[in-house]
TrEMBL record:
Keywords: Kinase, Transferase. Gene3D superfamilies: Glycerate kinase, domain 1. The lineage of its organism: Bacteria, Bacillati, Bacillota, Bacilli, Bacillales. It comes from the Bacteria. GO terms for biological process: organic acid phosphorylation. Pfam families: Gly_kinase (PF02595). GO terms for molecular function: glycerate kinase activity. The keyword Chloroplast does not apply. The keyword Amino-acid biosynthesis does not apply. This is Glycerate kinase.
Length: 78
């Protein structure tokens, strides 16, 4: 699995040992991410609001991430 070579995977596996929840944000969520839930990720959130080109996604990345993070914070306040 290609995810095992990524920093978020390493963070999640260490966090799991200490029962620390991990939420990952990704521009796009591809096939096969389900196994990540068994390896320390509690949630994986796609940040794109809709279909866009790579250029648009990169140009709006900061705003899209902020929007997604704000929504997660709203859920956690419930």
């Amino acid at each position: 699995m290609i995810y095992r070579n990524k920093t978020p995977y390493g963070v999640a596996t260490v966090a799991k040992k200490y029962s620390i929840p991990v939420i990952a944000f990704a521009g796009r969520i591809g096939n096969g991410v389900e196994s990540l839930y068994d390896n320390g990720f509690n949630a994986i959130i796609g940040i794109l609001k809709g279909v866009s080109s790579l250029e648009e996604a990169l140009d709006n990345g900061e705003a899209n991430l902020a929007f997604a993070a704000e929504n997660i914070c709203r859920i956690l306040k419930l």
